[in-house]
Amino acid sequence: xxxxxxxxxxxxxxxxxxxxxxxxxxxxxxxxxxxxxxxxxxxxxxxxxxxxxxxxxxxxxxxxxxxxxxxxxxxxxxxxxxxxxxxxxxxxxxxxxxxxxxxxxxxxxxxxxxxxxxxxxxxxxxxxxxxxxxxxxxxxxxxxxxxxxxxxxxxxxxxxxxxxxxxxxxxxxxxxxxxxxxxxxxxxxxxxxxxxxxxxxxxxxxxxxxxxxxxxxxxxxxxxxxxxxxxxxxxxxxxxxxxxxxxxxxxxxxxxxxxxxxxxxxxxxxxxxxxxxxxxxxxxxxxxxxxxxxxxxxxxxxxxxxxxxxxxxxxxxxxxxxxxxxxxxxxx
Length: 332
What we know:
Layout: H1 15-22, H2 26-34, H3 41-54, E1 72-77, H4 86-96, E2 102-107, H5 112-124, E3 130-133, H6 139-148, E4 152-155, E5 165-168, H7 171-184, E6 190-194, H8 198-213, E7 220-223, E8 243-246, H9 249-261, E9 276-280, H10 284-288, E10 294-298, H11 300-312, E11 319-321, E12 324-327
Parallel strand pairs: 1-2, 1-3, 3-4, 4-5, 5-11, 6-7, 6-8, 8-9, 9-10
Antiparallel strand pairs: 10-12
Helix pairs in contact: 1-2, 1-3, 4-11, 5-6, 7-8
């Protein structure tokens, strides 16, 4: 039967189970949760290890009835500093809020330890589902989600073994599409710029593997600091480059700024560009700048709406590939 509400979760790990595994009393576990500075470090470490092993998270709503619905959904994104994920958050909010759900937003900032911490914080609010950009960065994070026994949706990629449901696109194939286009355009010296997070790395691998299959010169990879603009990618680091695939549009636009200052960017069509640049995300700024930015268009709004629907019903496919489009403009 179709439903507009997530399935009721089975029982989660209890405080008494943590106490038994750690060899302490339930009162001690409660103190570790509420006033950890008052517990001996060795005991605290043992209790926290047991919590991680069991996937236990403290219930911040312990004063409420055990059967109470929170009507909330936790959403974890890498960052809100880059608007690339805004359409996804908007799409899922547009689906969930009319049904009375509150969206609780958290950021991992591309940091694995922070991601685990924020997942635990979200779960402590007892949300009825979790939607996250990407897959858990660590096994501890994956264990927390598996043992939460609520709907989980991983987005913006297509993991082979998802925790529950997936709504995304194939990052590896995005790299394949860009490589094939740039080779067909006659480009010879390639580079990839961007972060080293798992999704960017899959784009890089698709890009590099395809160039190798096509007999092209091996590409260089320039890893940027987290949240850095592509403008920090100095041209001196990429001598003779004539084609760049950026992990996202923000990096691409930043790199184009550097090209403009170096006199290597023209307002003509792609064939006249000394250096072709292709990004990912189809940000509005990329459509407005001159030359306009070629990009991989990701259907962010559809990803968000699909993720919301996946937590509202157990019917239908649980692994949804929403695809992407290579949008060619003047930059490449």
